């Protein structure tokens, strides 16, 4: 059965852009391990220096870089080739897996030097147990390095005022891509400015049209934006919440029950109940040609999407007239993936060299941006400046408006959240009861982890 929205159609593509952003994805198992030679790798005893700067060619040894992207192995190999133009004597082995795999490798004494994740601080045990290395001694040797990243991105890697990773990419979740032809049909010559949750409600529901008992037109489903946590965060933020609403890092306390959050979730439930009928949606989706969806068939006025999704739609229907608009600025927040230095690995100093090159140099960020399609977190990087596609440029420019960051609580609550969020949207559990439960459930995990 086709899913209600285009998420299923885009799942493989979106995985490329946001594979690390779901903690469920990050914890999927993989049998791929770093080569055993990683354990015996050794750096050069003392790198030669050129004008006080270590000569990259004098570094030698072997490291392993672990990501959740086996489907991107060929692209990652191109990034490694670019690295070896500067560091010709450092061999980088690729490994693939999530947090569970990293734990197994650490336990067996064959930890990779570097691990890429979209949820860098969602497991406090990785910090307490030293699986993620404290970068303080490394940053002390490169005092200007942290200034190369925006504060919003650095906040995603900071716990107790210490950085445990370097920002890899940046994204604002999510621009609104809209079909200009459909908006024109409904009397809109331009996309209106949205400032509040009330504005979102009034505008979004105009495009949920039923004719003769059948779904005629759709818009964005508020309860599904990539996943339930992303949707929940987006509208809670639109209603005035921010990362500190949910998590106070100083007192180590959790709060999902703030009135702004309760009101936002109640709105999400009400919007679905009043506008979205699952059976009608299933019937409409079943009427489309195989491999297509409402957006491709001019039956969806707008959606909160990633730039790659918009490109995919245009590849399927070049006649789409797409525009880009912004959610209320309160709803814009920065997320992204990070590269973590693994504490128990054998060759951390070499790992640090690759980590710096990948995230904070023009060579490194341009290489992964061109090969993988991610927008670098590095300030003023040339890749962003070189973008020519107007839709992509507009989407990237929205990032400069985002003043909030994705909230990260240092325990994994994804399974409990997703299970009960579904009950809330189905009317089986009241929003306030759910949020009170998540507050207590999460606080218990935090207390147990201390």
UniProtKB/TrEMBL annotation:
Secretion signal span: 1-26
Q: Which InterPro entries match?
A: Bact_solute-bd_prot1 (IPR050490), SBP (IPR006059)
Q: Write out the ranges of the annotated region (Disordered).
A: 25-60
List, as start-end ranges, the regions of compositional bias called Low complexity: 29-45
Q: Which UniProt keywords apply?
A: Signal
Domain of life of the native organism: Bacteria
- A Pfam family this chain is assigned to: SBP_bac_1
Q: Does the keyword Signal apply?
A: yes
Fetch the PANTHER family from UniProt.
ARABINOSE-BINDING PROTEIN-RELATED, DIACETYLCHITOBIOSE BINDING PROTEIN DASA
Mind telling me what this protein is named?
Extracellular solute-binding protein
Origin species: Cohnella soli
């Amino acid at each position: 059965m086709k899913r209600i929205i285009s998420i299923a159609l885009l799942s493989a593509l979106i995985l490329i852009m946001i594979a690390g952003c779901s903690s469920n994805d990050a914890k999927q198992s993989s049998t791929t391990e770093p080569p055993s030679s990683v354990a015996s790798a050794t750096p050069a005893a003392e790198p030669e220096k050129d004008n006080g700067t270590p000569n990259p060619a004098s570094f030698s040894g072997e490291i392993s870089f672990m990501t959740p992207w086996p489907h991107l192995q060929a692209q990652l190999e191109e990034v490694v080739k670019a690295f070896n133009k500067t560091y010709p004597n450092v061999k980088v082995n690729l490994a693939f897996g999530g947090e569970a795999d990293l734990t197994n490798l650490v336990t067996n004494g064959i930890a990779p030097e570097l691990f890429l994740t979209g949820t860098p601080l969602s497991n406090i045990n990785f910090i307490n147990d030293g699986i993620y290395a404290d970068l303080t001694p490394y940053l002390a040797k490169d005092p200007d390095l942290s200034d190369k990243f925006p504060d919003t991105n650095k906040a995603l890697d900071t716990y107790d005022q210490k950085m445990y990773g370097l920002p890899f990419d940046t994204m604002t979740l999510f621009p609104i891509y809209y079909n200009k032809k459909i908006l024109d049909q409904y009397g809109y010559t331009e996309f209106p400015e949205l400032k509040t949750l009330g504005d979102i409600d009034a505008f979004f529901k105009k495009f949920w049209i039923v004719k003769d008992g059948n779904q005629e037109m759709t818009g964005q489903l508020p309860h599904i934006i990539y996943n339930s946590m992303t949707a929940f965060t987006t509208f809670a933020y639109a209603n005035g919440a921010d990362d500190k609403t949910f998590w106070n890092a100083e007192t180590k306390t959790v709060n999902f029950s703030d009135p702004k959050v309760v009101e936002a979730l109640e709105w999400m439930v009400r919007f679905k109940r009043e506008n979205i009928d699952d059976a009608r949606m299933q019937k409409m989706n079943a009427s489309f040609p195989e491999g297509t969806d409402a957006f491709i068939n001019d039956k969806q006025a707008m959606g909160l999407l990633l730039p790659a999704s918009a490109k995919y739609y245009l590849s399927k229907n070049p006649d789409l007239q797409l525009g880009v608009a912004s959610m209320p600025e309160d709803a814009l927040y920065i997320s992204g993936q990070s590269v973590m230095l693994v504490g128990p690995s054998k060759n951390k100093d070499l790992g640090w060299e690759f980590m710096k090159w990948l995230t904070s140099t023009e060579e490194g960020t341009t290489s992964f941006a061109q090969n993988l399609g991610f927008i670098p977190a590095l300030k003023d990087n040339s890749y962003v400046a070189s973008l020519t596609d107007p839709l992509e440029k507009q989407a990237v420019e929205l990032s400069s408006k985002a003043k909030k960051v994705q909230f990260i609580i240092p325990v994994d609550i994804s399974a409990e959240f997703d299970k009960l969020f579904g009950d809330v949207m189905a009317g089986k559990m009241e929003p306030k009861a759910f949020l009170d439960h998540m507050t207590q459930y999460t606080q218990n995990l935090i207390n147990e982890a201390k």
